[in-house]
Amino acid sequence: MSSPVQQSAHTRDDRNVPSDLWTARDAEAYDSPDDPMFSPELLERTTLFLAELAQGGRALEFAIGTGRVAVPLQSRGVEVSGIEYSPAMVEQLMKKTKTIPTAIGDMATTRVDGEFSLVYLVYNTIGNLYTQDAQVECFRNAARHLRPGGRFVVEVLVPQLRRLPPGQNAVPFDVSEQHLGFDTYDLVSQRAISHHYRRQSDGSYRYSPHNYRYVWPSELDLMARIAGFELEGRFGDWDRTPFSSESDSHISVWRLPES
Fold first, then answer.
1. What is the DSSP secondary-structure string of 8-71?
2. Is residue 16 over pLDDT 80?
3. Do the Cβ atoms of 88 and 23 come closer than 8 Å?
4. pLDDT tens per residue across span 187-210
5. pLDDT tens digit sequence for 28-66
6. Cys-Cys link to 22, which of 86, 136, 139, 203 (CB 3.0-4.6 A)?
């Protein structure tokens, strides 16, 4: 087996990648048992969904992070590889397992060896690429890794612009003693920033912004068509609840034609 941590020759220069680079401090604090996205029930549903789509083949996770999904998916018997932009996040993954080969690079251009039945991108990370061009290249990169008939899965929020008051560009999403978070939006570029103020043990606050680009389901479908995909299904959650105009997020599945 190749080394589990790889520096890909296909990765473009960091200065040209429109994505935030997570630091060691970010990575060390990422895994939190109190965060709902780490709940065993959610991960059970998520990995069941993905394992069924893999159909016994190999899976590749874009933005694998610390292995929140990849590790339990591997436990289901799926052979998983990953691509991750942040070396610090991969260091945390390697503390959990050294059996998931992971290339360090951006998900729009980085290539790994082999052919896959499934490429997946979860928890809004398509937005980490904060230009439209980079998001289109992400779809093309997924297609390059897939065998004919393979599937690309994206989990992402529906843009919450209905929560934006007229004349304002900021929406709070968490107000508590330990954390203040709000999003600011540029409605022209679809660029947004999540602003986080976290209370420290000494009573001070640490500020950490996160840049992203929000994207509509219909826009994702166009990106998929550019890359040669066909929409196979769209759901409101990992239980395959029907997607509707009231859904806060969606899990979309695109498929490469067999020929």
1. -TTPPPGGG--S----HHHHHHH--TTSGGG-HHHHHHHHHHHHHHHTTS-EEEET-TT-TTHH
2. no
3. yes
4. 999 999 999 999 988 999 989 999
5. 888 887 778 889 999 999 999 999 999 999 999 999 999
6. 86
22's tokens: 């997570």
Q: What angle do CA 29, 69, 193 make, to 5 degrees?
A: 50
| Strand order through the sheet with 80-84 | 5-7, 102-104, 80-84, 59-62, 116-121, 146-157, 249-255, 230-235
Q: Which two tokens stand for residue 134?
A: 């980079």
Q: What tokens appear for 179 in the block?
A: 């954390």
Pairing verdict, β 116-121 and 146-157: parallel
**DSSP H helices in the chain:** 24-30, 40-54, 70-75, 87-96, 132-145, 217-226
Residue 15 has pLDDT above 60, yes or no: no
Q: Which amino acid is at 78?
A: V
Model pLDDT for residues 96-123, shown as the tens digit of each residue: 999 999 999 999 999 999 999 999 999 9
